[in-house]
Design goal:
Order of helices and strands: HHHHHHHHHHH
Strand content: under 5%
Radius of gyration: 16 Å
Helix content: 55-70%
CATH class of the largest domain: Mainly Alpha
Number of strands: 0
CATH topology of the largest domain: Cytochrome Bc1 Complex, Chain D, domain 2
CATH architecture of the largest domain: Orthogonal Bundle
Largest sheet: none
Distance between the termini: 29 Å
């Protein structure tokens, strides 16, 4: 990546952070007023088949949700429900959810403890760390990659899900929920995406 492209990415990241920060704070405030984590855990019983009873997925290319920021989860569920993030699986499942259901589910998953999903592969981890630094991933996802507000937790996420998501952003198959990501991953090779996912998946 050229110096000019790096500078452009930094500017885009900064703008996106400020815009998303306001949205995240508003979403989190509104959700906190009504969200019930215990109710969310009960409502998540139907989600366990894919996302795991404790929020840790054992299904290929299916995300773990434990420890994800509640504002991020609530936003994604609304996007699924409203057809702005089309999915043959999630759109029908989210279609019948009320705003209260969504906020409860988000609070329930956010309260669950995250953990690493991958075993360290030192060469891949080293390469992935360099990729994360060169793409300034921590600028939005936090230095520990635990996410914040509108930005998802990447630490401990399934590597295959991360790889698929990054490819979808890069190749234009996913954009409605975060157009910023399409810009950030442009020009990345498949090898870099796999290495980045390996690095993130083994983080606590």
């Amino acid at each position: 990546m050229s110096v000019q492209a790096n500078a452009r990415t930094l500017r885009l990241v900064a703008v996106a952070r400020y815009l998303a920060m306001g949205v995240a704070l508003l979403s989190a405030t509104l959700a906190a007023q009504a969200a019930d984590a215990a109710a969310g855990e009960r409502k998540a019983a139907a989600c366990a088949a894919c996302h795991g009873v404790d929020g840790h997925s054992a299904m290929v290319e299916t995300p773990s949700l434990a420890g994800q920021p509640a504002a991020y989860l609530a936003r994604q569920l609304r996007l699924f429900r409203d057809g702005q993030r089309p999915s043959p699986i999630m759109t029908p499942l989210a279609g019948g959810l009320s705003d209260a259901d969504i906020d409860d589910l988000a609070a329930g998953y956010a309260a669950l403890a995250p953990r690493p999903s991958g075993a360290p592969d030192e060469p891949a981890v080293a390469t992935g760390r360099r990729v994360a630094e060169s793409r300034f991933c921590a600028s939005c996802h936090q230095p520990d990659f635990a996410g914040n507000g509108a930005y998802p937790r990447l630490a401990g996420q399934r590597a295959d899900y991360l790889t698929k998501s990054l490819r979808d952003f890069r190749d234009g198959r996913r954009s409605a929920d975060d157009p910023m990501m399409n810009e950030v991953v442009q020009g990345m090779s498949d090898a870099d995406l796999v290495a980045l996912a390996s690095f993130l998946s083994q983080l606590p």
